[in-house]
Hints:
The protein is of the alpha+beta class. It is built from 13 helices and 12 strands.
Amino acid sequence: MISSQRKYLNLYKLAPEERVKLYKEVLRLHREGVKVLTISQKLKIWPETVRRQINGSNPLARRLFIVTPCEELSYVIGVIKGDGCLYIDRGRWAIKLAAKDLDFVKEFARCIAKLLAKERPYPILFLKDGRYRVVAHSRSLFEFLRKELDYLKPYINKHPSGFLRGLADSEGSVNTSVYRNCGEPCFNVSLHISNTNLEILEEAKSLLSTHFDIAARIYPSNKAGTITFISGRKMMRKRDNHRLVIQRFSDLKKFLMHIGFSIKRKQEKLSDAIVVRKRHGLKPEAARAWASLYEERKKEWTKRFHPPPISMLNAC
């Protein structure tokens, strides 16, 4: 609404959808050869603001998010439904990710920058607790990402691998185990994605089945009130947790080929586990080959500092 005492609109007070609509109209009129002052009078926008929107130097124009389905958008949605968060800080609409894997935070920063048409990724800060953090500010993107999953599904379905990769980077893990069966060592691998929102996991399961022919099952995990440790911090779960599990070896190969991880250590671990299983199957040699590459620390298998080359595993 235009106040009787003011000739021009205050763009900061407009809803994101209205700002995007005005911005597109400015560019359309400019392409048709309409002069700046005429555009200003027609749309009730300051002439200087019109000039800046046309040449791209206006901060409101730079932070505008114009919804266009793409791999990066699906990835960001997946991350926000996992480790990412949305919050309002002193009147600024913030989109944040803090994680221990630098390559994960870099990929998220790259995708956010592309969605907001920034030439360079957002800066990444190193936190005292050992995590990396990136924060972007955009009301239009913030308002889009906070919508219900049903509203976001059409955008996710056009690029399902991006959503699944973002969710897997956030909440996914490659679970490997070495155990004994009838006295012989055995090796097993599966992929888990955890989340407190069962609807998100159901959507992920549907995408895996429909687009990639990957079978997955969902199981209840930690109950509300369970004490857990996240990034070294003791926390009590407020809601029930669930996990989506991919177990079939052929499905793990499909996941690696068509979806994968942006996090190098997770991608390598899944790739190494698949190589071991492919070369040795369920034989005892598989467990020995895996133990030569990885060692168990605090109930998790992590890569050795100087593992033997993967090509040498046939000798195990």
